[in-house]
């Protein structure tokens, strides 16, 4: 987060400004241009608290304890990413109810947590740059338990189908969306590219890397998981496309901020550009929820 | 297969007898009591050829080659299990069309192949009894690529929804069924139990093991993946329950046959018992497809 904080100050106390000096544009909704971050903070806090409560109910610690205790731990110890909260916010933005996106948001966190565990699994051919985390369990458990978490995420999603609401088609669409984002052309590809970079001796995260492998990895690992809330909230095709792009830019931006780059100036430029691109996608939407969702790109999470 | 061959002779040349001396019962359909195994063989061959063709079309070798080549290899080099073919046979037994169960059958093989790769991943705390396979790729690839194969299986399933057929509810039911069977209370639990046995020094696969951990592992690893074809073929609830049980016994039986047990007599007894239990579940069904599906428990696959 160093680069971000250097640019904008601490997100908890700053004001949110939607104006952008380097790429001016007008927003078609008319919010107060400066809103208190504390309001947004409470919005995201309430979303995250609801997701956590939903997951805690979905993953009781029950037999076999040898499987469910690690599952509980790996789920709740993984760092958050942007996808679950953005899923809820997008659903609410288009007029959907939070409950409609709760299973998807929970599934997104489960799958992210599973990926995080496998990403940090010690393997003989893993590059040395990989961050060291505290491993609470032996490798066999940290391999197998996430293998159960991913199907469980899909189970939560498929069970959220409510025949009374006639939402089967939306749920199936979201399953396809999440499966693609998680799969061989999505997160797995991003992880693989990142591993390759770690294996090439001495390659630095230079300007070229920021535009090249890093952009690609941020897109695949962090960017493409963020579109499902709009579908569940009943968005139109145009709205889905716009919120998919918004999610892409938000996720990529977060991906850059989570990494260290040798050229901080270049990094800051890319991060600012992604923020602008993200805000442009929101111009289509109206209402007070726009302010809330736009605060994502000011680092509230 | 040693125990099985010892009991019944080579499955390709033997005759199929539905009678059972140790637990007599009558079948409510009236097939010829002895049918040529070659007929069944061609039934299973055609099913397996169709599944393979569907998977080959679904997994073209395309960029990124570094991900899709291993995915192709891991998918087609994994040994077959009973679930995919049984999925198709159950669908056809209840009057469904093969195409209705093809995505599910393909997904089942993909997930089985992913599990097989992770099961054989070299880890520092893996027990020494684990069978050595030829690893075509480095551990990082054999970890990551299966992580993409499981979501891809769910994607195939979710995309098989056909609004014209109004089958969304069936597809969602099958996603729940497969997710549960693959997850923390299913295959993952079975794998974990098997690992535990490997870790306890000197524990033998004795009579107690055959009834205890081995039964549990066969149930979880091989037994519970076999119910989805009936749902997709439009079976009634009663039919689904019966075919779920049939699949459970068939899968468990195959699980026992795939393992070595120190007490072969006990193993043969359990295998024969599971065959009887499986055949009882088929008494409910009528028509020539019953003969075909019953040949599963005579080791055609």
From TrEMBL, chains A, B:
UniProt cofactor(s): Mg(2+)
Protein's UniProt keywords contain Protease: no
InterPro entries assigned: Isoprenoid_synthase_dom_sf
GO MF annotations in UniProt: metal ion binding; prenyltransferase activity
Span of the signal peptide: none
Keywords: Magnesium, Metal-binding
Name of this protein: Uncharacterized protein
Organism: Rhamnella rubrinervis
């Amino acid at each position: 987060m160093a680069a971000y904080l250097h640019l904008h100050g601490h997100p908890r106390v700053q004001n949110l400004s939607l104006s952008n000096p380097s790429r001016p544009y007008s927003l078609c909704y008319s919010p107060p241009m400066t809103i208190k971050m504390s309001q947004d903070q409470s919005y995201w806090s309430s979303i995250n608290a609801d997701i956590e409560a939903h997951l805690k109910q979905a993953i009781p610690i029950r037999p076999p304890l040898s499987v469910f205790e690690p599952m509980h731990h790996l789920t709740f110890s993984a760092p958050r990413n942007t996808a679950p909260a953005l899923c809820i916010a997008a659903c609410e933005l288009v007029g959907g109810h939070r409950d409609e996106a709760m299973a998807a948001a929970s599934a997104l966190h489960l799958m992210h947590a599973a990926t995080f565990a496998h990403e940090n699994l010690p393997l003989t051919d893993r590059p040395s740059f990989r961050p060291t985390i505290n491993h609470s369990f032996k490798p066999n458990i940290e391999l197998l338990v996430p293998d159960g978490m991913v199907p469980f995420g899909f189970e939560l999603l498929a069970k959220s189908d409510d025949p009374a609401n006639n939402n089967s088609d939306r749920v199936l669409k979201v399953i396809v969306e999440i499966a693609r984002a998680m799969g061989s052309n999505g997160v797995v590809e991003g992880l693989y590219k990142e591993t390759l970079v770690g294996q090439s001796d001495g390659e630095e995260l230079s300007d070229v890397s920021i535009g090249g492998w890093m952009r690609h990895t941020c897109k695949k690992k962090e960017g493409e998981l963020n579109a499902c809330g709009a579908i569940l909230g009943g968005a139109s095709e145009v709205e889905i496309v716009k919120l998919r792009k918004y999610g892409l830019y938000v996720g990529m931006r977060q991906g850059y901020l989570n990494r260290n780059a040798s050229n901080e100036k270049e990094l800051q430029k890319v991060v600012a550009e992604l923020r602008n691109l993200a805000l442009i996608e929101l111009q289509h939407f109206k209402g007070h929820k726009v302010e809330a969702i736009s605060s994502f790109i000011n680092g509230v999470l």
